Amino acid sequence: MTPETALKTRENMLRDGYCVIDHILTDEFIGELREESERLIADHDPPEDFKYQGQHINVRGEDNAIIQKLLDWAPSRRALEQLGFGDFKTSGGIIILTKEPKGPPLYWHQDWMQWNDPISCSPWPQIVFLNDYLTDTAVENGCLKVIPGTHLKRVPLHDQLVPAHEQGARFVEEDHPIMFSDHPDQVHVPVAARALILGDARVLHSAGRNYTDERRTLILAWHRRATTDVPDYWDGDIPEAIAQRDPNRNYPGSRLPGEHLKP
């Protein structure tokens, strides 16, 4: 991407909590990933409490050459570096997530687990998800939904949600009035299969129901910064909570937004 495009894309990421980067995967590599994901799905029996995530298969790159190829994929790495996110490192694995044919939606949630840490209010991302979709996505097959800006700003929905995933959300009923609700500020994020969605772990997001007869497959990879230092590209104000943060203190983990997420 051009420097101008990279700057605009990074601004979108910082402001909205997500961005879309086009033309990352090739058609040939998508074919490899589809074949390998279907092979892994065929041998997998998803637990009932993962019905909103679909298959939910964890794969380490060191155990699978095709997944390692994705983790090492040069266009993805180059895009991160162009955005100024070159200090993000892979976790070493991925999760295959699906929307099965006619499968249910995914509930609203955020994936940040360090809300007691003042780094939670950083205006830059610390942990990001990379979503590679193996088919085109649309509202009809359960594309991503995001509430822009909720990585930095508390909204009433934050305090109404059942805590994410294993802490309660996996066990809610599909007619839960909050977890699967429409939000006035939500946006749908349909993408072509070759695109990459980059998202801040703190942003509220979900996915719609798959109304089609075909599986919609996503490969999710987590990346985190190796440091909590201010990134080189940041030239804005530094929140006081971060300026005074004790880097040697052990901050207990928490999925629940606390005092560091302000309205």
What does this structure look like?
The structure is a single chain. With 263 residues, this protein is an alpha+beta fold. The protein has a single domain (3-228, 239-243), classed as q2cbj1_9rhob like domain (Jelly Rolls, Sandwich). The chain has helices at 3-16, 27-42, 65-71, 74-82, 240-243; strands at residues 18-21, 57-60, 88-99, 106-109, 127-133, 144-146, 187-189, 196-200, 205-207, 216-225. The longest helix has 16 residues, at 27-42. It is globular, with a radius of gyration of 18 Å.
State the gist of this model:
The protein is α+β, with helices and mostly antiparallel strands and 263 residues long. Helix content is 19%, strand content 21%. The model has no long low-confidence stretch (mean pLDDT 95).
The CATH superfamily bears the name q2cbj1_9rhob like domain
Order of helices and strands: HEHEHHEEEEEEEEH
Return the CATH architecture: Sandwich
Large-scale geometry: globular
- Stretches where pLDDT is under 50 for at least 5 consecutive residues are none
User: What's the tally of helices?
Assistant: 5
Major beta sheet summary = 6 strands, antiparallel
From the helix content, strand content and strand pairing, which structural class follows? alpha+beta
Average of the residue pLDDT scores: 95
Rounded to the nearest angstrom, the radius of gyration is: 18 Å
| CATH fold-level label | Jelly Rolls
Distance between the termini: 35 Å
Q: What portion of residues is helical?
A: 10-25%
**Total separate domains:** 1
Counting DSSP E segments of at least 2 residues, the number of strands comes to: 10
How large a portion of the residues is in β-strands, by DSSP E?
15-25%
Strand order of the largest sheet: 1-8-5-10-3-2
Reading off the top of the CATH hierarchy, the class is best stated as Mainly Beta
